[in-house]
């Protein structure tokens, strides 16, 4: 194949239209296949046609007239209109090169169809126009940063809210604009941090307090292009008036509370007594917190038990004091009500002056408060006191873990005894299955062994939200015996398993547990030479295993029964 044929093959497979024009006659002396196919001509039809039969826009006509007059010049990336064989028009981007062949000038025209590009540009421009209209119509100030932290867009409300100078906007200095925003915020470091986290996946919400007293609510979320983060959108709302209204509301509420507190002398005495009771409860909580910190820092369970006993002893006296105050306050309310009822019953025999005095007394004494509010406060106080008393009881149990004077305890009898004690509490929540793999005796206080099993069974019942299943298994190995309590409950998250035996740590709701049950069980088992392990999966349940030293080898007999 000749080199000329190869060149023609290359030209025919070019994606561009290529036309070779003789400048004096403006005749097309050569064309590639792409030109013929794009314009709809047969390949042999283009040679011999005038270039002005195809290029028909006014600038094209002027250009070729200059060429005819000997003015040759190159053209780069100029738009034009080409007439097709069916008389339709297409928009092209063309370039013209002046070349020389055998000492004579020729013009090489290269063009490509840009109709699709124009459509894409029009759609893009329409989309951008709609986006700009949407940004301007929203009620919030909008700022869009690209993945490099540069300003991609903002609406007029944003620039007005922040008072961005026109000079900064005209200069398009993104760094200066962002620095201008941060300088207006009291916590400027926070503002700079929010504006710099442009590729974060988090959706955030912050309050920005400006130096001029205004308050802006800033919400930021990532901007995605497909699955890729390409920037971040910040939405700002001026909530200054709302903040002021809330502050005024709080001030009015405080004033109302102050007026309520300025009651008559009798009610002030009642409130003082309630405040005393509240202070006592706070003191109890403070002491419990101090005890918790000391317990968590202790390295040995024995020292923790001594500390728990001391805390329980110290709390007993405040509890008795609070209980006494509650009884006295309740009796005081009853006496006041009886006195008021007695006065009202004797109105028929009283003088107008005495009636006026009674009316004044009724205004001074808030009877509705004595009948209802005071009773509710007393009930709530007694409920809180009962919770504290339960904590004290747990602390006492916690302090009595001891290993002296051990006796042999039968494992199966201990399990059955515990089941009988807690049966009423767990029978409505779970089916209990016993799978005893042998009978053995361990060296342990029977009461303490029962306390361990009771805590594990009650915890298993609490873990089950609907009626489920609790399985109790026993088994043994060389020198030890084990007990497993498995529940079909909600399970324990992995991040909490490491703390499950810590004193005062609990996964139960506030007020539903002290966090001492498992810690107490852990201490009892350790003191008797054993250990406890736990395995749990969220949504599948938990298995607690207690391993204890074996006094004698387990018997060969096996038993399995179901308690329903």
Which features does this protein show?
Beta-Lactamase, phosphoprotein, 6-stranded mixed β-sheet, phosphorelay sensor kinase activity, disordered C terminus, 49% helix, alpha+beta, elongated, HisK_dim/P_sf, 24% strand, histidine kinase, HATPase_C_sf
Q: Would you write up a description of this structure?
A:
It holds the Pfam family PAS_7. It catalyses: ATP + protein L-histidine = ADP + protein N-phospho-L-histidine. Residues 239-301 form a coiled coil. GO terms for molecular function: phosphorelay sensor kinase activity. This protein is α+β, with helices and mostly antiparallel strands. The protein folds into 4 domains: 3-113, Beta-Lactamase (2-Layer Sandwich); 133-241, PAS domain (Beta-Lactamase), CATH 3.30.450.20; 263-399, no CATH class; 408-563, Heat Shock Protein 90 (2-Layer Sandwich), CATH 3.30.565.10. 49% of the residues lie in helices and 24% in strands. It has helices at residues 3-12, 33-39, 58-68, 115-137, 156-162, 166-171, 174-183, 188-196, 240-261, 265-297, 301-345, 352-364, 367-399, 411-426, 446-463, 494-497, 517-527, and strands at 17-22, 27-31, 75-83, 89-101, 104-113, 141-146, 151-154, 204-209, 215-225, 228-238, 408-410, 430-436, 441-443, 468-477, 480-487, 531-537, 541-549, 559-563. The strands form 4 sheets. A 6-stranded mixed β-sheet has the order 16-17-15-14-12-18. A 5-stranded antiparallel β-sheet has the order 2-1-5-4-3. It has a 5-stranded antiparallel β-sheet with strand order 7-6-10-9-8, sandwiched between helices. Strand 16 (531-537) and strand 17 form a beta hairpin. The longest helix has 45 residues, at 301-345. The protein starts with a helix and ends with a strand. Residues 553-564 have low confidence and may be disordered.
């Amino acid at each position: 194949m000749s080199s000329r044929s190869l060149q023609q093959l290359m030209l025919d497979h070019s994606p561009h239209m290529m036309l070779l024009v003789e400048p004096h006659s403006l005749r097309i002396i050569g064309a590639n296949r792409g030109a013929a196919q794009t314009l709809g001509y047969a390949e042999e039809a283009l040679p011999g046609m005038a270039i002005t039969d195809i290029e028909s826009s006014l600038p094209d006509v002027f250009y070729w007239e200059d060429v005819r007059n000997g003015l040759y010049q190159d053209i780069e990336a100029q738009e034009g209109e080409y007439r097709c064989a069916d008389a339709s028009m297409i928009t092209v981007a063309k370039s013209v090169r002046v070349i020389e062949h055998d000492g004579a000038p020729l013009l090489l025209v290269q063009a490509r169809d840009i109709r699709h590009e124009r459509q894409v540009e029009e759609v893009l421009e329409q989309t951008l126009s709609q986006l700009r209209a949407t940004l301007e119509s929203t009620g919030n100030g909008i700022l869009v940063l690209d993945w490099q932290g540069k300003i991609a867009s903002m609406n007029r409300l944003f620039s007005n809210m922040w008072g961005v100078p026109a000079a900064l906007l005209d200069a398009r200095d993104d760094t200066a604009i962002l620095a201008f925003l941060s300088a207006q915020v009291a916590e400027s470091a926070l503002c700079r941090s929010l504006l710099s986290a442009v590729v974060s996946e988090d959706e955030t919400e912050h309050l920005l307090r400006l130096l001029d007293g205004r308050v802006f609510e800033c919400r930021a979320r990532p901007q995605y292009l497909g699955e890729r983060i390409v920037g971040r959108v910040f939405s700002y709302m001026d909530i200054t008036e709302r903040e002021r209204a809330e502050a005024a509301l709080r001030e009015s509420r405080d004033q109302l509370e102050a007026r309520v507190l300025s009651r008559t002398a009798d009610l002030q005495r009642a409130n003082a007594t309630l405040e005393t009771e509240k202070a006592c409860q706070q003191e109890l909580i403070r002491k419990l917190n101090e005890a918790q910190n000391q317990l968590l820092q202790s390295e040995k369970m024995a020292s923790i038990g001594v500390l728990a006993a001391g805390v329980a002893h110290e709390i007993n006296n405040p509890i008795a004091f609070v209980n006494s105050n509650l009884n006295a306050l309740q009796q005081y309310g009853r006496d006041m009500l009886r006195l008021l009822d007695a006065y009202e019953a004797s109105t028929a025999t009283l003088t107008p002056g005495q009636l006026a005095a009674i009316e004044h007394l009724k205004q001074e004494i808030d009877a509705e408060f004595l009948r209802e509010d005071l009773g509710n406060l007393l009930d709530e106080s007694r409920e809180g006191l009962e919770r504290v008393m339960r904590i004290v009881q747990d602390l006492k149990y916690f302090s009595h873990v001891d290993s002296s004077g051990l006796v042999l305890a039968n494992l199966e009898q201990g399990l059955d005894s515990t089941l009988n004690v807690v049966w009423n509490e767990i029978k409505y929540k779970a089916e209990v299955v016993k799978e005893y793999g042998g009978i053995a005796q361990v060296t342990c206080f029977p009461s303490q062994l029962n306390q361990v099993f009771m805590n594990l069974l009650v915890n298993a019942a609490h873990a089950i939200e609907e009626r489920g299943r609790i399985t109790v298994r026993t088994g043994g190995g060389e020198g030890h015996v084990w007990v497993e309590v498995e529940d079909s409950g909600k399970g324990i998250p992995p991040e909490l398993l490491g703390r499950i035996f810590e004193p005062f740590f609990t996964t139960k709701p506030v007020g539903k547990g002290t966090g001492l049950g498992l810690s107490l069980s852990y201490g009892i088992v350790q003191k008797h030479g054993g250990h406890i392990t736990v395995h749990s999966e969220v949504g599948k349940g938990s298995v607690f295993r207690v391993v204890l030293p074996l006094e004698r080898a387990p018997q060969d007999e096996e038993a399995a029964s179901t308690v329903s």
